């Protein structure tokens, strides 16, 4: 009967340890011709509730957070999906260095092309970080990563699972040791 409980606990632990984390925090990096962005997105469901990080390249600035809607330069819905498309056509709108920055997607055949657009005005967008042609249409994103950050409850469940394995494994070794001594 005892072995039944041990097997049942092992099966329950296996299912618990493989359950996906209900992560609402994501680390991300984005690389384009003119910008590199590294930061963290916090969501509630698919709605982005905050964004932090650093923008570098033509504009070196700290991300100051999401911008309110409506915005004079862009529309955005601030939706994020870890399965793709990661952002919608309206995108995620945030501030950095006094400018509005929008990361958005455009359907392209069977996939999506992602862009970074900004609200810089008047000048050469590609060589001067303080100026751009009237509404820069966007810089194509060349590469990027998105990684879910597990919640504290996920870490706690994993630690409890390993502790349970250690307890059951230790008892089994102790019983085998006493049989050998007898």
What is the structure about, briefly put?
Helices cover 25% and strands 38% of the residues. It has two helices and eight strands, in the order αββββββββα. The two termini are 23 Å apart.
What does this structure look like?
- It comes from Bradyrhizobium campsiandrae.
- Keywords: Membrane, Signal, Transmembrane, Transmembrane helix.
- This is PEP-CTERM sorting domain-containing protein.
- By secondary structure, the protein is of the alpha+beta class.
- The chain folds into two domains: 49 residues; 125 residues.
- It is 25% helix and 38% strand.
- It has two helices and eight strands, in the order αββββββββα.
- It has an eight-stranded antiparallel β-barrel.
- Strand 6 and strand 7 form a beta hairpin.
- Helix 1 runs antiparallel to helix 2.
User: What would you report as the Rg, rounded to the nearest angstrom?
Assistant: 24 Å
Q: How much helicity do the residues have?
A: 25-40%
Task: Outline the low-pLDDT stretches.
Answer: 17-22, 121-127, 131-135
The 3D shape can be described as: elongated
Oligomer: single chain
List the secondary-structure elements in sequence, H or E: HEEEEEEEEH
Largest sheet: 8 strands, antiparallel, barrel
What is the strand arrangement across the widest sheet? 1-2-3-4-5-6-7-8
Q: What's the mean pLDDT score?
A: 77
End-to-end span in angstroms? Answer: 23 Å
Please count the helical segments: 2
The helix-and-strand class reads alpha+beta
- Domain tally: 2
What percent of residues are in strands? Answer: 35-45%
**β-strand number:** 8
Signal peptide: 1-23
Protein name: PEP-CTERM sorting domain-containing protein
Transmembrane segments: 152-170
Keywords: Membrane, Signal, Transmembrane, Transmembrane helix
